[in-house]
Design brief:
With 71 residues, this protein is mainly alpha-helical. Helix content is 77%, strand content 0%. The chain contains four helices and no strands. The chain has helices spanning 7-27, 29-34, 41-52, 54-69. α1 packs across α3 and α1 (7-27) crosses α4. The chain is globular and about 40 Å long.
């Protein structure tokens, strides 16, 4: 089943995108800031969400980990 049709998998993909984009923005900020518009702008926006809402994102990651572990 595709991650787009399973809600839990879709949430997992979104969380992984946010966490990966935030880490990449910490490592190479110049490349991320250069591509704020267009298709690559999605990664820039995900990095902004990860930076500004980091406590909530980390809580969601822990909840998702427990959800997958006990499923």
């Amino acid at each position: 089943m595709s991650a787009l049709f399973n809600f839990q998998s879709l949430l997992l993909v979104i969380l992984l995108l946010i966490c990966t984009a935030t880490y990449a923005h910490q490592v190479i900020p110049a490349i991320m800031n250069r591509h704020q518009h267009g298709f690559l702008g999605v990664f820039w926006k995900a990095a902004r969400i990860g930076e500004r809402l980091s406590p909530y994102v980390s809580i969601c990651c822990v909840v998702m980990a427990f959800s997958l572990f006990f499923q």
